[in-house]
Each structure stands twice: as C-alpha cells, then as structure tokens.
Amino acid sequence: MADPSPTASNAPSDTIFGRILRGEIPCDPVHSDELCLAFRDVNPQAPVHVLVIPRQPLVNLADASDDDAPLLGHLLRVAAKVAAAEGLSGWRTVINNGAGAGQTVFHLHVHVIGGRPLAWPPG
Ligand code: AMP
Q1: Could you say which architecture CATH assigns to the domain 12-114?
Q2: Which of 49, 74, 107, 109 is the catalytic position?
Q3: What's the DSSP call for residue 88?
Q4: Is 109 considered catalytic here?
Q5: Half-sphere exposure of 39 (CA within 13 A, CB side)
Q6: pLDDT for 41-91, tens place per residue?
Q7: Where are the chain's structural domains?
C-alpha cells in the first residue's frame, strides 16, 4: 500500500518544528548549534524524551540524500551527547519514517528516550 506521507516535493511548506526553529512557539531546549536544535518532547513517553531536529527542513530519512550524511551523523552525535548530559546509560533513538511508522510531524527528528526500562521489540 502506498505510504501517504509527504515527500520533499509535496510536503507542507511548514511544520510545528519549523515554527519552533523560528522562535514562533516556545520549546524547552537542551541543545542548540548551527545545524540542529534539541528540545523536550511535549508529550514524553519516558522520564527523558528529547527530540533532535535539523535546522534544515528535511521531511524524514527517506527525503535525505547522500549529501546530508554529515548532518545525519551530527544528529546522532548530538543525540548521544544529550543522553549523556541527561545521565542516561541505557537509552533509545527512534526515527519514525512515514505515517505508516507513526511519523506525525514531517520535519526529520530523532527521538532520544530513556530513564525507564525499554521493551523490545517496540510496538
Ligand atoms: P513523530 O510521531 O515521530 O512524528 O513524533 C513527533 C513528536 O513531536 C511527538 O512525540 C510529539 O509529542 C512531539 N511534539 C509535537 N508538538 C510538539 C511541540 N510543540 N513541542 C515538543 N514536542 C512536540
């Protein structure tokens, strides 16, 4: 079945994360640099639940290109630094790609989840 998720060519021109990046709506930031912003999820699924987002409006991993590889690596390095700063030892990163996988905001984001036991496999 075709995935109805937006792609770069038909994505909404803006998302709630775009508005956060522009400072139009508030967030609870834990990291900021020239490439990305990390902030606490408004509906946390664990004691620590942070989202790491690129400043560049990539829709999701499927929308990224080989040229984005350094940026994608940076997002993962920031995820690890956030986890360490939060005092986590066991933690999980999640990147939902497409509506069928639970992606609801079509601006790439890395979930950093921890602070409680995490079951496997995920739902
Ligand atoms: P996903 O379902 O993978 O697209 O994840 C989107 C995440 O964004 C969800 O965990 C939401 O709780 C979170 N979220 C939505 N709006 C906000 C917001 N304004 N501030 C922080 N997190 C948000």
Answers
A1: 2-Layer Sandwich (3.30)
A2: 109
A3: -
A4: yes
A5: 17
A6: 999 999 999 999 999 999 999 999 999 999 999 999 999 999 999 999 999
A7: 12-114
